[in-house]
Amino acid sequence: MPETTPETHVIDFRAAEQLLASRDPRGAIKLLDSVIAAHPESRAARLLRARAYFASAQLRAAEREFQHIVDHEPDNAFAHFALARTFQRSGRPDQALRHFRLAAALDPKPEYLEAARFDS
User: Fold this and answer.
1) Is the torsion defined by CA of 49, 54, 55, 58 positive or negative?
2) In contact, 44 and 78? CB cutoff 8 Å
3) Along the 120 residues of the chain, how does pLDDT read in single tens digits?
4) Under 8 Å CB-to-CB from 55, ≥6 apart: which residues?
């Protein structure tokens, strides 16, 4: 088996981005598993894997990853928004609304504000 290096992990990360963009989330997850095993602190790799889990409808795994990011980066508006979408897709609207509102409070992007439903 070839030796893995930090450069290998960067290549795998970039390839995983391309796979996800090409609608192959499961392929992206396979590449990211080894990157995260080598660099468990990498929020970028975890966020990408969370997005891939979400895209492949592995909602429990997506929730776990997004929650990990929110726990370590409570000011990450995108992670809150993505976690909210995961809760929404899982049929948990109350938990979703909480994170939609956190995302909107952290970053008042129109899509975050709309999802937060502050006016209702």
Assistant:
1) positive
2) no
3) 556 777 899 999 999 999 999 999 999 999 999 999 999 999 999 999 999 999 999 999 999 999 999 999 999 999 999 999 999 999 999 999 999 999 999 999 999 999 998 876
4) 20, 23, 25
**Whole-angstrom Cα distance, residue 91 to residue 104?**
21
- Residues 35, 46 contacting (CB under 8 angstroms): no
Specify the pTM. Answer: 0.92
Amino acid at 108: P
Q: Alpha helices, DSSP H only, in the chain?
A: 6-21, 25-38, 43-55, 59-72, 77-89, 93-106, 110-116
**Residue 15, SS3?**
helix
Residue type, 98: R
CA dihedral 103→32→30→81, nearest 10 degrees, is 0
Which CATH superfamily includes the segment(s) 60-120? Tetratricopeptide repeat domain (1.25.40.10)
Domain ranges of the chain: 1-56, 60-120
